[in-house]
Structure formats: C-alpha cells, structure tokens
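Technical annex, item 7. During the second reporting period the consortium partners agreed on a shared format for inverse folding records so that results from different sites could be compared directly. Each record opens with the tokenized structure and is followed by the designed sequence. A conforming record, contributed by the partner at site C, is shown below for reference.
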C-alpha cells in the first residue's frame, strides 16, 4: 500500500483571498485541482451544514472555504453544486443562515438538499453490504468533502470520514443510529463503509476556527486553530488531525475500527506530511469531549447493571432549555418526552447524542455515570 499524503497549512483568518491562496496551495501539493476533476463534470461540494447558525458559531463549514473551492472547481471547467442533508430543516435554509447561500448566489451555484434516499448494494463493504444514501450524492460525477473540525460527543471528533454521513438523508439517519444501537463501534464501521462507497475525490478540512468541548452543536466552543488540512485519504487525514490536536489515535472511533479491520493507513509514521510539520502546529490544550464509552464488551449478566453507571449520557440544563421540542422530534429510539421539561428515559437511551447535536440553545451536555466518574479520579 502506498503511503498517503496529508497536507497541513497555516491560515490565520477567513479573508477570502488568503483562504483561496492557502486552499489552492494545499491542493497543488496533492497534484492540483486538475488531478481530481475534469472539464464538464458536476461536482458536489459537501460542507458540514449541521444547523442554521452564523459562521462565527463554528457549527458549519465557513463560507470562505466553500467559496475558495467553488473558485477552484470553476477554474477547472467543472460545475460545482453545494449540498447536504441537515438533521432539521433544509440545506438551503441552513446555507442562508451560515453565509454559504450568499457565496453560492455570487457564483451562480445551486444549493441542493440531499433528500431522496435510495438503497444501494455495497459488495466491497467491510461490514455493511447495503447502504441507504442520497440519490443526489450518488448521481454527481464526484464529491469534494468539506468538513468542519469539531468535537463530537459520540464519535469524539467529526472530521473527514464522519462528514460523509451527511450523504445519508436526514430522515434516515435515526434509523442508522437505531441499527447500531449502543454499539458505537458498529456505527463507526457504518461511517467508514459509507465513506469508502462514496469515496470523495478530495477532502479539505476547515480548521481555521474549529470547535472544542461539548460539540458538535451549539454547546461547543469555537477555538481558533489557524489550520487547513487536505488529503485524498480521509482515514489518514483524520489520523493526522488527531495527532495535531494531541489526542490518542484510538480515541477517534473511526480510526480505531479502521485499524482493527485493517482498512487504510492509521500508523502516523506511514503517512506523508506535506506543508507544515505536525510538531510545528501541534495544539497542546485542545478541549475534547468526554469519552462516551457507550459500549462495553461485558458479560451479558453484568451489562444491564453496569452500562448506566459506566457510560456517559445526555443531560439537560432546564434553565437553558426553551422546550422547542427539536430533541424530542429527532430522538432515534423515541425515549424523550416533553412535559413541563424534557424527560429522558436513561435506561432506553442508546447514547447517540443526536439531541445534543441538534439543540439550538446548547442546553444538552454529556454527563458521566457515577462509576465512570469514580474511575476517572
């Protein structure tokens, strides 16, 4: 197996001209935009459009990064379109709020909602031989993946591999969470199989301002990192980013299961780093989310007793909660209800943290079980 290339470049702010220059330099180190797309192709730009928040909230990919990639694709003679499948609302609505719609309008680029789900055979999948994906994402000629660097309560970080989950239609996402249940490793394997099936031609990560802490939604904290990452191989890319942030390699579950299943390159010493060196850009105080630990391989007789005290769970700040009901509506197992407050049946909670991800007020956080807190002391 050839050693994959991963580019790290410094970029201090979202100045359009500077972002374009850095993104172009990053792509040029990988062979130039012409190595990835051909004239006349229709290319889907897949940013993170989680929810309708302004750019400075660091919830979505910044419009300056999307703008730079639109320019590159146009210069190569291809037609870019921007698309995603947010958990709540449409891609168009989220793009309006986060500033991407204004960029799309400037360049005459269509914004599409990845809304039509189709079932596809995945014979080369390591675990999942059938996937349900957006018809719109499958029918384009190619995909350029544009993640936002963020923490994620369930998966630890949302980077290149995780961002492709946006090509699963929003209404179908809860079903995948239910299929995996409390087995976060199974969910990570589904993410990898989805990524490998769609195989974006290029991934550029917006890490100029990332998100740390209680991400990936409104409860997370924006953190200026001043970095752009680019690669073809998302497994290698994600491994490099965890190294830059100072995390253990297997803390990111997609990296852990990729190593277990011998998929891609997860050894940092076998990845070619281009641009800046890892030690020159390393972040030493990045705030990670609590490790959820939602799935322990315990004997069945012990699992039901120890799962709750040993795992993290969603916790609601009733003072911040506005009873908007979005968390109740999105909950995959349907174990959240609204009375004079939001109630969670902890015994039936699958720890997917969709509620935390979608909460517009940042009122939901991760709370460790009592035994997990005791062990961590």
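Designed sequence (site C submission):
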């Amino acid at each position: 197996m050839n050693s994959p290339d991963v580019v790290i470049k410094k970029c201090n702010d979202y100045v359009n001209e500077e972002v374009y220059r850095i993104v172009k330099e990053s792509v040029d180190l990988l062979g130039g935009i012409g190595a990835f797309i051909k004239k006349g192709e229709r290319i889907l730009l897949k940013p993170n459009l989680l929810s309708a928040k302004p750019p400075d909230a660091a919830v979505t990919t910044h419009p300056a990064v999307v703008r730079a990639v639109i320019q590159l694709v146009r210069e190569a003679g291809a037609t870019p379109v921007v698309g995603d499948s947010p958990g709540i609302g449409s891609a168009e609505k989220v793009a309006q709020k986060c500033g991407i719609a204004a960029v799309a309008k400037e360049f005459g680029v269509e914004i599409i909602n990845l809304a039509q789900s189709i079932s596809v055979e995945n014979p080369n999948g390591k675990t999942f031989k059938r996937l349900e994906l957006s018809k719109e994402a499958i029918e384009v000629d190619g995909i350029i993946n544009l993640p936002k660097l963020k923490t994620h309560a369930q998966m630890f970080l949302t980077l290149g591999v995780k961002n492709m989950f946006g090509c699963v239609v929003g209404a179908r996402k809860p079903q995948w969470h239910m299929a995996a249940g409390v087995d976060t490793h199974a969910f990570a394997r589904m993410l990898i199989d989805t990524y490998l099936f769609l195989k974006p031609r290029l991934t550029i990560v917006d890490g100029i301002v990332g998100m740390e802490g209680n991400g990936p939604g409104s409860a997370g904290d924006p953190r200026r990192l001043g970095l752009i990452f680019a690669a073809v191989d998302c497994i290698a890319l994600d491994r490099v980013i965890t190294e830059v942030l100072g995390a253990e390699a297997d803390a990111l579950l997609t990296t852990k299961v990729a190593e277990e299943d011998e998929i891609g390159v997860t050894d940092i010493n076998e990845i070619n780093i281009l641009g800046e060196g890892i030690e020159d850009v390393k972040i030493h105080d990045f705030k990670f989310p609590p490790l959820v630990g939602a799935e322990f391989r315990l004997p069945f007789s012990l699992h039901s007793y120890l799962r709750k005290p040993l795992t993290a769970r969603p916790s609601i700040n009733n003072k911040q909660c506005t009873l908007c009901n979005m968390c109740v509506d999105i909950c995959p197992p349907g174990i959240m209800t609204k009375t004079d407050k939001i109630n969670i049946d902890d015994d039936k909670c699958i720890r997917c943290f969709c509620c935390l991800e979608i909460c517009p007020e940042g009122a939901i956080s991760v709370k460790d079980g009592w035994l997990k807190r005791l062990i961590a002391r």
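The chain has two domains: 5-281, 300-376. The two ends are 42 Å apart (CA to CA). All partners now use this format for quarterly exchanges.
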